[in-house]
Predict the 3D structure of the following.
Amino acid sequence: MKPTVGFEDRYDLTPDQRIGLIGLPGLTIEIRPKAPISNVVFLLSYACGAAKPDVEEPQLAQEHGLVELIALLLSGMVKRATRRGLLNGYITEEDSLQAPRGRILFDSQLRRRLGLAPPIEVRHDVFTPDVLENRLLLAALDRLGQLRLRSQRVRKELNGARRVFGAVSACRFSPSHVPDIVFTRLNGHYRPALTLASLVLRSISAQLGSGSSHASAFLIDMNVVFEQFVRIALREALGASRQSFPDEAPKLHLDVSEQVRLRPDLCLIDRGRIA
C-alpha cells in the first residue's frame, strides 16, 4: 500500500500472491483471484489431499465469496473426518485424587501436602477426544466463524461441523506457531481436514483493536497452495509414496561444513538417496 500520486488521503493497494478478506472498521476489502473461484476451490481441495471438492454446486461460486466457500469446504471435510466419531487418544494429566491412580508424584506430595494423604498427587493417562488434532479442527472452525460471513447457510454449516467437538478444549493458535501433525494409520483419515485447518489458522491474523472497532485478515498464500498441488500431482503421476516424495525435503547443505542450507521445493528419494 502506498499513497496515491496527487492525493493526500488516498492509497493504492497492490495485491500479491495472497487472496482473501481484510476486515476494517466500516470497510471490508476482498482480494479475489484472477482465476475462477471454482478453480481455486479445486486447487485447495486437491492440495489438502481430498479426493474431490466438497463444494461442487456451480451456483455456490456465484452466491458466495471465496472465504465462505473455504468455510463450506472445511465444514464438509470435518464432517467426513468425524463421521465415525471423534479421534481419541491418550493425554497425560496431573491431578489430586482421593485414591491412587497412575503414578504417584512423591515430590509434589511432599511439597504441596507435606506428605499427608489424601488427596494424593498423581500423574495418569486419560483416553479422551481432547487431543491436538481435534483442537486444531475446532480452532479453525471457530476462527472462520468469527469472520464477517454474509451467508446464513455458511454459518449453519460451520455450527453443524463444530457440534461434535463438545468435549474438546477451545484453543487459539498463533499463525506462526501452528503445530505440525504426524500422521499415522490412526489419524490418517483426518489428513485433508487437518491440512486445510492448518492453512486456515496460518492465514488468519490476530484481531486488532478493542470494543466495537477491530480489524482482522484472512489471507491465503496461493504460492503455498500451488506448490502443494504440484507436489501431490507429481507424487500421483510417479506412483511415489510420501516417504519417497516427501512434503519436506531432508536437511541438505551446499557446502562441506554444512553452513549453507539448501531447501528444494521438490525432492525424490530413491533407495535412501536423493535422486
User: Anything to note?
Assistant: Residues 222-238 form the longest helix (17 residues). The mean pLDDT is 81. The CA atoms of residues 53 and 265 lie 25 Å apart. The radius of gyration is 23 Å.
